[in-house]
Here is the input.
Amino acid sequence: MSATVEIPYITEPRPDTGLVNVKLGTWLFLASEVMLFGGLFSAYILLRAGAETWPEGASILNVPLATLNTFVLITSSITMVLAWASLVRGDFSKYRRFNYATLACGLAFLVVKYFEYSAKFHHGLFPSESTFLAIYFTLTGLHGLHVVGGMTMLAYYAFPGSSMWHTNRVQFTNRVECAGLFWHLVDLVWIFLFPVLYLM
Amino acid sequence: MAEDLEELNKHVRTCIAVFVILLALTLVTVAVSYLDVPPAAAITLALCIAMVKATMVVSFFMHLISEKKLIFFSLGLAALFFIFLLILPVATNQTEVKQTVEVKY
Here is the structure.
């Protein structure tokens, strides 16, 4: 004997919160992410304020490549918005195209990051070299892992996860919207990382 | 439904405008870093531009501007602790302990 348990408030907003559960859960998760990066930014301030000398980011890091990566991430954010908007309009093939574009931007970001990292390693600049490089690799490494995590989620919703579109369109659209929220957070963190590490 | 779609189209148009502004602000951030301004002013300016960009991403891309109160509350709490985390190192760096002692003769 099997029983189907209906999970409530997946497509209809919960009356007391006015939200579908997935959206509230995602925002709470994002709040915890703010604290995760907040702790590391706090460590950055402590290390920088306590250091006798602090190098100018541009003298060690590649500003043009980082600027390019900033453009790439901002572009991926708009393609994410367009992917979600396509689903709301009921245009699944357009959603797929914009999802692929977002994934391509994520991949481009990682490739540029790979070149940046390998150039540093090639010159013997490892995290153990200086406090600046230690916090640089920690912050950008954690951010890079978030890009990989976001891409994994987007790839899931582009391929196997997208079958839900044929069974429950509203739920699938909500899921993609929340995946987008996470993706925008990744962009948001980079908006701060870029000037803090490369331009100051 | 038609109204919802009109609302969505408006939202998408706003997001595209935000996208262009974000690209422009990125160029401004890089340009400002090459200007010969005192470090304190350069850092303040770069962080102010980053704050403006972040506000635009959260408000429009993440459409927080039209979200429910509960989300504002949970984010407000996170923001409060985030500010505390940023102030904490500054306070820790304070080596001098100031204390008022009442002396009785």
